[in-house]
Amino acid sequence: MKEKLRLNNRGFAISAILYTMLILVVLLMFLVISIISNRRATLNKLTETVRDKINGEVVGTPAPPVLLYDKIKEGAQDDTGIDFKKASSETNGKGTYVMHSTAASTNPIYYYRGDIHNNFVLFAGFCWQIVRTTDKGGIKLIYVSNGDTCKYDKSSFISTKTKYSAYKNTYKYTSSTVKTTVENWYNSNIKNKPVASKVENTTWCNDTISSSNTRTPNVNNCTTAVTAYVGLPTYDEMILAGGVYAEKGIQRDYWLYIPQNYQISSGKYSSGTTLDNITAVGMTIDKAGSASTVYYVGSNGQIHSWDVTTTYNIRPMIVLKHDVIWLFGTGTLTDPYQIQA
Asked: Checking phi first, is residue 93 left (phi over 0); if not, alpha (psi -120 to 50) or beta?
């Protein structure tokens, strides 16, 4: 009897152990299944995150395009400290500036001043330099050379023997010889190309002002205005760039001045350097007595005015629309800005 009871107790113990082990195995299985399920959920979530990130970066919405206008204004300084009665220098303006009087405008005026070399841009098969922006957010360019390589050479002017006018009493650009010259060039080289859609029909100042080195540049208010796709630099734009009227000595260290000794590329010039008489004519008139004269950048870099019947070098200007997209390039002579065609 005792032996039978002992066997029964042993059976119960074994059964209890077996049931306990079974329960533990079941619990362990549930635990394993739970861990696997959690890991699978985590893995799925991670996979979705990675896939979303890849899709977002590779095939999703691209980053917004960068406008050339926005590249120009990067790092621009306020110009309140510049003395426009004096030439540009290391301490009187060198770099990109915002015209203080327009800083609060919808489209502030940004311009390049001084001995800088980062305002080159390729457009329509030509190299140009950026002069400034406009009150509509456009970008004013001045011609540098023919082709996709920016260089100062004999192609830096579309004409070197053009009279501003054949008549001494011409006060208006609209009745000048040079207007026909620049418009013929534009019509032959840009007008009928697809890229012409990037050029803005804009307002150009053709004011008549008195010879003075005390004038504060003003680019928004014109007494006489011309609407056209192509034009010439104004007196005020020459001043903004770094020139000064009739100052004694040589002032060639600003970007608008083009060296005429084509073998000099450093931007520094010594006395005795062979230079052409006149480097570029503008479209601002200086009325002097019964005859009129036109402002130009002289061989010494100074701004002067001279007889409209003199032959001048011609560098046309155009205005790109605000929405022109920058693709790449740093704006230097060897790495000019490239824009979307």
From this structure: left
Lookup: tokens for 266 = 């450093």
What are 91's two structure tokens? 């301490």
Which stretches does DSSP call E strand in the chain? 66-67, 77-78, 95-98, 110-113, 120-123, 126-133, 139-146, 159-163, 202-205, 225-228, 278-288, 291-298, 303-307, 311-314, 317-320, 325-328, 338-339
Query: Residues 185, 189, 131, 228: is their CA dihedral positive or negative?
Result: positive
Beta strand 311-314 pairing with 159-163: antiparallel
What is the pLDDT of the chain when averaged over all its residues? 82
Residue with tokens 């046309």: 316
**In the chain, where the domains are located:** 1-55, 66-339
Considering the entire predicted model, what is its pTM?
0.78
Q: Is 148 strand, coil or helix?
A: coil
Alpha helix segments (H runs only) across 225-325: 235-241
23 compared with 317, residue with greater pLDDT: 317
Distance CA 53, CA 62 (A): 13
How far apart, in whole angstroms, are the C-alpha atoms of residue 15 and residue 5?
A: 15
Token duo for residue 150: 């920016």
